[in-house]
Amino acid sequence: MVMREKDTIVYDFLAGRLSARERNRFVKLMRYSKDVRELSDWHEAVYKQIEVLNPEELQQLLQLLEQEQKSTLVVSFWKPYLKYAAIFIGLLGGYLIYTHYQEVNIETQSQQALASLQTIDLADGSAVDLEKNSYIETIRFDDEIREVTLIGTASFRVKPGQKPFVVHTPDGYTTRVLGTEFKIQSQHNLYQVTVDKGRVAIDHGGSNIGMLQKGDFLKVEDGKTNLRSSVVPLTFDNKPLSEVVQVVNDVYDTNIRLDASINDQIKCKVSFDTQLTILDIIEVLCEIHNFSYQIQDDQVSIKSK
């Protein structure tokens, strides 16, 4: 298909002049084609059309595209077309577009953040506030996970969703979001997390090192770990396991579930001090009663071994 024909098809698509079948074929092509050269031509046609739209036409385009079916977005922003790509992606509602790399590459915004504070809006509605000399190196959004790699310091406001949101740092730490607002500082020999809202789980080298909730603070500097918790001590004297779990859920704002294989009326005599994270508490309960646990999204399941 020659470029002139592509220009016409894109124009008709943006103007709402394609039939339902033609529009469906266009969307499927943009969504599933892996022909980089052909998609390059399509993208050029798209950006060329959007560039000439006035504000009223953009609003009309928004109303049209909001009616289209939405799906997960994976797109690589090209520097020469960054502005128009952002407009097109925002209006198109997240259609899957393949280019040279099947990921979002926000190198342009990241380089700007090196010299000043910068807020980056992600495709899922989440936002990242990058501090000076900080940037996001890579980012991946697909049907299974939302994932970024952070260099430096940033505050995250994560939009709740079924897919996990994971932040990696070059020193091997992984922060798995179980809540919504937190701050990460990653520098030489220093890793620090402060939770402002919700919960996050942290691991290093595949080992869980903490699950933090609102007000908690974790700092690892030169190999030494410092954890501060805002939670008051909890003491249970021969209370049913179901009651212990309910209280822990309420206090820590977490979601622990007892598997059907467990007798939830087992009596517990245990005390948890303020230095323990929610993950520590779960491990203590499992050790006392010979249980195991599994973390999936924002839920922790305790079950028999």
UniProtKB/TrEMBL annotation:
Domain of life of the source: Bacteria
Identify the InterPro entries for this entry.
FecR, FecR_C, Ferrdict_sens_TM
Name the Gene Ontology molecular function terms of this record. Answer: sigma factor antagonist activity
User: Short name of one Pfam family for this protein?
Assistant: FecR
Q: Which residue intervals define the domain FecR protein in the entry?
A: 116-200
Q: Which residues form the Protein FecR C-terminal domain?
A: 234-302
Which Gene3D superfamilies does its entry note? Answer: 2.60.120.1440, 3.55.50.30
Q: Where are the transmembrane segments?
A: none
**PANTHER family membership:** PERIPLASMIC SIGNAL SENSOR AND SIGMA FACTOR ACTIVATOR FECR-RELATED, PROTEIN FECR
What is the protein name for this chain?
Answer: FecR protein domain-containing protein
Native source species: Sphingobacterium gobiense
Upper classification of the source organism reads: Bacteria, Pseudomonadati, Bacteroidota, Sphingobacteriia, Sphingobacteriales
